[in-house]
Amino acid sequence: MGAEASCCKKEEILEVTNVVHQKGDEDVPDSPDPRDPFAVLGPQGTSQPSLHSQISVLTEVPSLRADQDLMRGISLHKSLRKFGRVWRTKPSRLTEGDHQVLSKVCVKVDHFDVFISHTWETNGRWKILAMMLQQGWPYMIILWLVYSALAGSLFLYTDLLPYNSVFPIQSFNWSGWGVLGCWMRVSGLLGMVTGLFMAPYWPRCRSTLAFVDVVSIDQIDPEMTRRGVYGLGGFLSHSSELRVLWSPQLFSRLWCIFELAAFRKANPKGKIVLAPLYVEMIVGFLLLWLAFMQLLYFLLLQVLQFSSFISFVGMVPVIPCIHQTRKICREKRRLLNELKQFNLNEAGCSVDFDRNFILAGIEEWYGTQEAFTEYVRGPLFRELVAPLETLRVPVQYWVLLGLHEMSSLLEFTVGYMSGGAPVDVVLAQFLSWPISNVLWRIISFRLGLFLCDRCSSRMPGACGLLDFMKTFLIWVVTVVFLLSTFEVTAVVERSSLVVASAGACVTIAVALFSLWAATG
């Protein structure tokens, strides 16, 4: 739970409450003593006895006991409905309409499958993208398969999908003409987009119940808001997993540090997942670039025959993608260096009482603030953060990228079949291009990301042109490698089915080793 918001900024909570309940009235009752955020307003705004004496859970030292009356959660996939509305509005900017929506999506729970730790300082669209891909990748794969099979069948066996052009086929024992359409790449793209946006609505056997601060903490009643905020320790103790949506601002907020400390104390063996948002950002950039490249290839093929020149032109738009990836990796390395030198006193918090409240809990659980600082720099860093020193992309995202690339190459496989090519020729083409060449492309992407990560730094005092030249060199290395694999694949395809099969086996082995090195 982060920074702005329902945790640290008591004044903003009161402001939002006044907007909702008073509907813009100018006469606002006097606020209670700001040094005591547990004080509540009585009639005419007079200060009533502090909640310190009313609610046993709310003490000056955070409690890890949960108040069951406050336990409210939301299905993680449902939080992404309506284009992730839950994640797009900061608690300090909630309207009455927002409150009505939030009250309908939350449910009473006795346990959370996952506690989402994040900061509202980070733009909500990146969180939505990250969780949409995390939740939606299986459905993207399923619908890609369904749409691709349907488009291929309609193109081959009906006249419903017309072809756009013809291309010559020169294979090891057959020559002829194949017909080419755009339907495989269109169906593949539609399948992935549909799977992504349908993921929040897809029927599930079991929903993942999540703690999301804007939903799980009452944002209307000031008293309930305070009870929820200062009862975070209890929510964390009833959570099976702490999932940290890591962004640049996260570990600079004291409340986010508190969540980490409380969860590890309440669940010594509990699962902490550090989910950096930059991974899905990079995957999103790659998917968009691949979609653009496929469109460009298709347009060029209408006027030119397939050649290395077309492949080279299609690779030009990847330059800004590489440059942006280098910036993301540079920011990641800066964050890692900051965590290696973590200082609890530098974590920000807007309200002094909140800071004292959090620090009291840390001292209660870890002995001293210094001991907690050493814990973050040492065991916690080695467990969660050190693996991020190299850029790692989960295997399922590589599968998505591979299938995305396979769509355009399957058009030629279908073209071979529609042109009447023998079975062994079709199999050689399938093994060489939709299988081997796609895997070589994934390996080249992997090489490019590795170089972006290793060469992310910018020399002190260097001008922007020098930094861009580093990006350009990475692009050159990646393109040369990729175009070389195109030539090798073409030779293998024209040799024989046996050679194509052997080439596919070698490529699969290299790809598996590359992915193992990237994730292991």
Description:
With 520 residues, the protein is an alpha/beta fold. Helices cover 61% and strands 7% of the residues. The chain has 19 helices and eight strands. Strand 4 and strand 5 form a beta hairpin. The radius of gyration is 28 Å and the shape is elongated. It comes from Durusdinium trenchii. Keywords: Membrane, Transmembrane, Transmembrane helix.
Low-confidence stretches: 3-59
Shape: elongated
Helix content percent band: 55-70%
- The overall pLDDT, averaged over residues, is 83
Tell me about the largest β-sheet.
6 strands, mixed
Q: Helix tally? A: 19
The assigned structural class equals: alpha/beta
Q: Which strand-content bin applies to the residues?
A: 5-15%
Compact overview of the structure:
The chain is of the alpha/beta class and 520 residues long. It has helices at 3-7, 10-22, 81-88, 96-105, 124-157, 183-198, 213-216, 222-229, 232-237, 254-266, 277-301, 308-315, 318-340, 352-366, 369-385, 395-418, 423-454, 464-495, 497-519, and strands at 72-75, 107-108, 114-117, 165-170, 175-180, 209-211, 241-246, 271-276. The model is unreliable at 3-59 (pLDDT under 50).
For this entry, give a set of tags:
single chain, 520 residues, alpha/beta, two-stranded antiparallel ribbon, 19 helices, disordered N terminus
Secondary structure: elements and pairs:
Layout: H1 3-7, H2 10-22, E1 72-75, H3 81-88, H4 96-105, E2 107-108, E3 114-117, H5 124-157, E4 165-170, E5 175-180, H6 183-198, E6 209-211, H7 213-216, H8 222-229, H9 232-237, E7 241-246, H10 254-266, E8 271-276, H11 277-301, H12 308-315, H13 318-340, H14 352-366, H15 369-385, H16 395-418, H17 423-454, H18 464-495, H19 497-519
Parallel strand pairs: 3-6, 3-7, 7-8
Antiparallel strand pairs: 1-2, 1-6, 4-5
Helix pairs in contact: 3-5, 5-6, 5-11, 5-16, 6-16, 10-14, 11-12, 11-13, 11-16, 13-17, 13-18, 16-17, 17-18, 17-19, 18-19
